[in-house]
Structures are given as structure tokens and as C-alpha cells.
């Protein structure tokens, strides 16, 4: 069996196991990097389990989610342009597990992060509810990605503004989602990180801080396979030599507000190749 086929089978087995073990979840937690590698394809799974879910007595509020997972395909036609397609799956409390949204996104790298310094990219996309998400508004979203690298340290900040469309919505202005990651490379394979995530549904009517979702906590990332950055430098032109990498990540996040769950465990599995 070839090395690439072996890793693909391992990825499939890992995703199946993670899906079987999933428990109550509200959302996925994603950190998107600004750097784009030409010709690269990425397969990603993101999921989360939550404990101590926020409760509500209002029958008009959305039900808390027992499961929430995302499967994403990313493709990079050039070294500065990325396309992504995502399927989201949820299981609202007391209902069946089903697809709830599809999402199309694009990203343009404007400033390339090389060694120590800054990286900058812009991303945007559209999300359309389907399945058990029918009846919810879709949205348009856009925002910047900032990165700063210094030695083995990397700081990443994703900011995403969104506007609800094509459905019933009480949103007056733009909504905001953010992710912030401070990562330290312990070795070529192991990265330790402190991460924060949050969401404000409506910047024009933010309400009390306790009504917003905000999380912070540690995570680790472990990667094995060929070093794509090294091969890109060694290759000719924009396209590097062939490589593949497999990454797994686990993190624990702590809710900072009443609207957040008390503790969330997040999982990421990714396979990238060209």
C-alpha cells in the first residue's frame, strides 16, 4: 500500500471515529492562516463537544445543539488564491442529525508571511442553510486575516463580519466572529497554542457581554508527513515538489459568559497534499 493511500485510509478512519464519539456541541472553532500554497488541496474535519450548555426559557430561541461538525475542502489554484467548500452538520436538541448548511468561500493572500514579519489576507463567502437549517437566514461574510511571526512564535487573528440574508432576521447591523491564536512550535511536528474565539450577533445592538459567546483555552497540533515549506523552497517556480501532511489537533476551551458553554473540547483533523 502506498504511503499516500495509507494516510487517506487513516484520515477516513479517524473521521469516522470522531463522528461516532461526538457529544453535545454548539459550534466549530476554526483558525484560518493567511498563507496559501499553490496547487495544494486540503481536507478538513472540525468538531466540538460542549459541557454545561446555556439554557433558555424562551420558546422562540434556537435549540442548543447536541452535535455540530464541519467537513471542508480547500483548493489553491495559485499561490495567492484559495477556494473552499464546506458542509455543516448539526443535531438540535431532541431532533435528528442532518446537514444544516453549505458554504462557499474564497481567500486572497495580499502580503506573504516569510520568516519573521507580517502576513495579510482577505476572505469572503456565502452560507446557505439547508436540511434542518431551513428557515434560518443565510449570510454573506468577509474579513481580514492577520499573522505575525517571530522565530518559533506565530500570532494569527481572523476577523469575520457577516450580514444575514435570504430569511427572517432581526439583525440591524453587521455581526462579528473572531479567532485569535498564539502558537509556539516546540518542534517541527508539535505546536502548542493558546486560542480564543467569540461571536457578536449584531454590532448595532450588542446587548450585554454575558449574552455573547466567548471562549479561551489551550490546544496542541501534531503533524507528520513531508515538510511542505521546505519542498516549496526546493521546488522550481510557484509549484513545489510533491508532498502530503496529516495533522491532528485537540483543544479545551472555557466559556467566559453565560451564553457560552462551561467547557468545550474541540477536535481538528486535516490532510493536505499537492
Q: What does it look like?
A:
There is one protein chain. The chain has a single domain, classed as Beta Barrel (Porin), CATH 2.40.160. With 274 residues, the chain is mainly beta. A twelve-stranded antiparallel barrel has the order 1-2-3-4-5-6-7-8-9-10-11-12. β6 and β7 form a beta hairpin. The chain has two helices and twelve strands; from the N terminus they run αββββββββββαββ.
Brief overview, please?
The chain has 274 residues and is mainly beta.
Specify the helix fraction band.
under 10%
Summed up, the domain count is 1
- End-to-end Cα distance, whole Å, is 19 Å
- Overall 3D shape: globular
| Weakly predicted, low-confidence segments | 7-26
**Strands, total number:** 12
CATH class: Mainly Beta
Strand order in the sheet with the most strands:
1-2-3-4-5-6-7-8-9-10-11-12
Overall pLDDT confidence = 84
Percentage of residues in DSSP E strands: over 45%
CATH topology: Porin
The main pleated sheet reads as: 12 strands, antiparallel, barrel
Radius of gyration, CA atoms, in whole angstroms: 19 Å
Secondary-structure element series: HEEEEEEEEEEHEE
Spell out the key features of this protein.
274 residues, mainly beta, Porin, 2 helices, 9% helix, globular
Amino acid at each position: 500500500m502506498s504511503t499516500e493511500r495509507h494516510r487517506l485510509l487513516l484520515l477516513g478512519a479517524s473521521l469516522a471515529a470522531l463522528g461516532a464519539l461526538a457529544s453535545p456541541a454548539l459550534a466549530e472553532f476554526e483558525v484560518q492562516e493567511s498563507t496559501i500554497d499553490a496547487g495544494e488541496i486540503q481536507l478538513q474535519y472540525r468538531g466540538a463537544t460542549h459541557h454545561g450548555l446555556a439554557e433558555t426559557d424562551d420558546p422562540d430561541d434556537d435549540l442548543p445543539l447536541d452535535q455540530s461538525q464541519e467537513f471542508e475542502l480547500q483548493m489553491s489554484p495559485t499561490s495567492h488564491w484559495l477556494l473552499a467548500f464546506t458542509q455543516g452538520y448539526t443535531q438540535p436538541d431532541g431532533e435528528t442529525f442532518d446537514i444544516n448548511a453549505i458554504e462557499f468561500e474564497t481567500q486572497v493572500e495580499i502580503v506573504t508571511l516569510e520568516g519573521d514579519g507580517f502576513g495579510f489576507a482577505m476572505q469572503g463567502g456565502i452560507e446557505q442553510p439547508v436540511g434542518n437549517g431551513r428557515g434560518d437566514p443565510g449570510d454573506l461574510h468577509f474579513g481580514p486575516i492577520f499573522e505575525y511571526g517571530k522565530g518559533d512564535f506565530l500570532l494569527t487573528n481572523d476577523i469575520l463580519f457577516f450580514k444575514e440574508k435570504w430569511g427572517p432576521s432581526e439583525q440591524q447591523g453587521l455581526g462579528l466572529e473572531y479567532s485569535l491564536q498564539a502558537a509556539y512550535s516546540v518542534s517541527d511536528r508539535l505546536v502548542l497554542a493558546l486560542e480564543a474565539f467569540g461571536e457578536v450577533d449584531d454590532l448595532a445592538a450588542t446587548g450585554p457581554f454575558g449574552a455573547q459567546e466567548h471562549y479561551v483555552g489551550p490546544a496542541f497540533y501534531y503533524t507528520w508527513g513531508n515538510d511542505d515549506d521546505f519542498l516549496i523552497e526546493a521546488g522550481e517556480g510557484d509549484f513545489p515538489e510533491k508532498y502530503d501532511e496529516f495533522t491532528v489537533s485537540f483543544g479545551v476551551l472555557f466559556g467566559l459568559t453565560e451564553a457560552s458553554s462551561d467547557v468545550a473540547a474541540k477536535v481538528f483533523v486535516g490532510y493536505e497534499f499537492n
